[in-house]
Amino acid sequence: NLLHLLRHVLKRKGCMTKVTWSDVWIEYSYPIGVASLAVITVCTAEYLRRNVRMSDLEATLTTLNNTINNTITDYTPVFGNLEEKTQLLHGDVIQVLGRSYVLPDDRAIFERDVESFLWFSYRRNFRAIGGTAYTSDRGWGCMLRCIQMLYSHTLIRHNFSRDWRWTKCNTYNSILRDFLDDPNGLYSIQQIAKAGCSAGKDVGTWFGPNTAAQSIRILTEFHKELNLTVQVVMDNFMCIEDIKFYCKEVNWTPLLLVIPLRLGLSECNNLYIENIKHCFEIEQSVGAVGGRPNSAFYFIGCQNDKLLYLDPHVTQESLSPDDIDLENIPDETYHTTKVDLLPWDQLDPSIAVAFYCKTEESFDDLCQQLQETIAAGSGALFEMVATRPSYMTPPRRTPIDKLLENYTAEYDEVNTEDAASDSDGFEIISNS
User: What residues have CB less than 8 Å from 279, skipping those under 6 apart?
Assistant: First the structure.
């Protein structure tokens, strides 16, 4: 009963994921601390001694609540070196988006590659999202941060190349500025949450890979100056002719291709593991978004049967655009050499893989690789055809005013009662 009450109080704060006796841990993504554990012990003692009156328990839980607040406020992420933070094996090949590394010989260039990704994590004290009270995405925004990481890497590839390494310049600064926690930022947490509303997701609820991808697709449609198109493959079926229809109205428009997948019902089928790993070997790969139950990650590679990921579950102070020089953004907290490994058997079966094709030749090459590997055989991740079957409706371009009609829904109409749901809500991709 005590644990249920603890869960109730923490859920109301919008940051509850799990409380268990086995390891006496409240999983915000870091330990709750000795002081809070002491309060839990006091609650338990009170419950057993008095069969606790509700008023007494509420008072004690208020104390626990305040302790948790202090723990969160005082928490500062400390990043150690790569050796301390990962379980990467020496001598085994590490695949990172078309690049191969072997530790320890390649440690320096591997770390340099990892830190060149933009790393977005939970932030607190940003401007409230529309008509809601949300000034932090802690506890619900992990998938939104992951899609930010994937899309920012796509923009880096779009403006530079796969071999670009973290150096400050005007173009890089402009990309980062678009992702700051600012309602006016093109791809800010506020804008992605707002786009999610038009896809049926309330602010404060967890997004699945497909919804996150659809949100980015919507935002990209409003920024034609990017000269980039985002296409999301649905129902595990990809038609090359239809993709080209959207990318080649006159000349080829660079493409971000996102393919949401379902690799099993409640757990991943081992039949798919080799093809998922192969995705990270392809030159056009920009990674994948997915995770494990209750947590979303941005996957950038693999080693053996484990996936490498950047973790958004660290809460940092938001950078206010009003308080910084937007021409020289302090970006140290947007990069890290810390990567983690997720064993295949812990992967949630809902995942989306993504590829960037700057030219039509690059897309043709990607299609050939997909047809020979991950879209072939008994472990095929999805079905792929060159031309549209006769029974399928021809594609059509959605008028921008139609997108605008859905996209500009007012925030004060959003229902936030379920913002602290107990699960990450990865949706099942429909096959109907």
Answer: 285, 288, 353, 374
Predicted confidence (pLDDT) per residue in 90-127, tens digit: 999 999 999 999 999 999 999 999 999 999 999 999 99
According to DSSP, the residues that pair with 290 across neighbouring strands are 297
Query: Does pLDDT of 228 surpass 70?
Result: yes
Q: Are 300 and 309 in contact (CB under 8 A)?
A: yes
User: Which residues touch 330 (CB under 8 Å, ≥6 apart)?
Assistant: 319, 324
Q: What is the pLDDT of residues 186-212, one digit of tens each?
A: 999 999 998 988 778 888 888 999 999
pTM of the model: 0.76
Strands 255-262 and 229-232 come out as parallel
Rounded to 5°, the CA angle 133-134-136 comes to 150
**Would you name the residues annotated as active-site residues?**
142, 311, 313
116 neighbors 165 (Cβ within 8 angstroms)? yes
Q: Which helix (H) or strand (E) holds 67?
A: helix 54-74
Helices in 116-188 by DSSP H: which ranges?
142-159, 170-177
Structure confidence by residue, pLDDT tens digits, 304-339? 999 999 999 999 999 988 888 888 899 999 999 999
Kindly report the number of other CB atoms within 10 A of residue 370's CB atom: 25
* Under 8 Å between Cβ of 334 and 176: yes
| Whether 177 contacts 123, CB under 8 Å | no
Q: Following DSSP, what letter does each residue of 146-160 receive, concatenated? A: HHHHHHHHHHHHHHS
Residue 178 φ then ψ, to 5°: -70, -15
Per-residue pLDDT of 400-422, as tens digits, reads 555 555 554 333 333 333 333 33
CB contact at 8 A, 285 and 346? no
